[in-house]
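WARN retry 2 of 3 for item q-0093 after timeout on previous attempt; input resubmitted unchanged.
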Amino acid sequence: MSNEIFCRTPLDKMPEWAQFTQATQQANVKSDHLRILNAAGLSIDLSTQRHSQELDQAGETLLQARNFTQARQALFNGTKINTTENRAAWHTMLREPRPLPEVAHEYRRMLEFVRRTDSERRWRNIVHIGIGGSDWGVRLLTSAFGYTHMWRNIRFVANVDGHAIESGLAGLDPKETLVVVATKSFTTAETMANAQRALDWLKAGNVRNPFNQIIGITANPENARAWGIPDHNLFRFWDWVGGRFSLWSSVGVAAGLTVGTPVLAGLISGAHAMDQHFLNAPFAENAPVQLALAGIGNRSVLEYGSHNIAVYDSRLSQLVPYLQQLIMESLGKSVDHYGEPINVPTGPVVWGMPGTDAQHTFFQWLHQGSDGAPIDFIVCQEADHQWPSHHRKLLAHCLAQRQALWTGKSIETAYQENLADGKSEAEARLLAKHRALPGGRPSTLIVMPRLTPFALGALLALYEHKVFVQGLVWGLNPFDQWGVELGKQLAGNIEKEINGDSTQAKLHDSSTAHWINTFRNNHAS
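OK item q-0093 returned
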């Protein structure tokens, strides 16, 4: 039973946790110790995270007590470590140079489909229909690598709001459009409603055989066939691939059609390189491990409630929502593998936007707000555009904000600056209190040599493995998402009630009952 891999003792009852907590609290807040790790071509600078020899030792001891080595191997072996759903979380298999035969077969089918479609110059438009893990990754790839030119137009439809599918189809020629339906179960309510609307649109556009212009990507091929997808347009992945880990699978076919299969190949290669680093790097040099421990210290010991992602590359604007899903859907849990409460704070809120826009939006809060948040600064050392002065400005802003967050500014320094600006002593002392910054706010700087598919693949795998380590230490299952299921279940019945089906009437709270009745009456009129 895979549960045996996971330590049964609650984290807060372990002496190793007490040692880690004490070491985190006692580590120097503003040390000037350069600490840079190298992993799969990325440079990860942890110099402004709390650090000490005692904390290093306490972190390693804690991981050993939580069966880290055994659990890590189980992840890569395909052991059923998703305990609540009794299945593996084997997305790393999708990145193996010599994967399982069925994985290799499906990948070859996908590549052949893209190559054949490209050679025939078919489909000027792609409408990608999916939500969550079946959506964010493809958006990220097309934003990152299709910003200069794509000969195909791609649109994304995720939300069940009718405006989403309307704007996704508006102005397109049905006979020049391929619809991609990506859903693990092929029952996802939003995706199937939008897929049906797209099918109706193709039929209304006099497409002779609309199912020849729809491809399905799913772990449930039976449902896809029953809906009408022919086998030659059906691409499979497996139940051991979680939705938020599915970019490495056939879910990426729309990206292959728009930014090219070399992007997919590079992405997978970079992720595999990070997999090997995670498997083999010593504890002190293991980037996912060290990022995870810093995050655990920040969240569970120092009690920072959120984590900011500051991406200093506009091409990675979709990275924040991608990581929001990866981290918050994985770590938004409060019971352990054995159903017992976890009595320390777990997964943080993840938020952010590209820099330098972020500096003019919420960095004021990061610098002087009462809470603050750890930040991941992500930047490319080299740009791919022809304006080097812009890139130097971007790099300067990134480094400056990080330094200001860490070093801060004392009241005395601000006071002296005010005097130098000609303020009176009274004005200088008052204004100094407003201009002082506390500093000591932790961050990590992640530097990619440049934005390549390999580098992005390594970056995404870095975060995946960080999440795995954090889930292991906290004792939670990062591969399920039961919290969203209740709302899905309720939505189906409430929809029937709004549609006037009184046989579906359930007992609701007074507010929900009021609005069901109001919306039903609106639709009836």
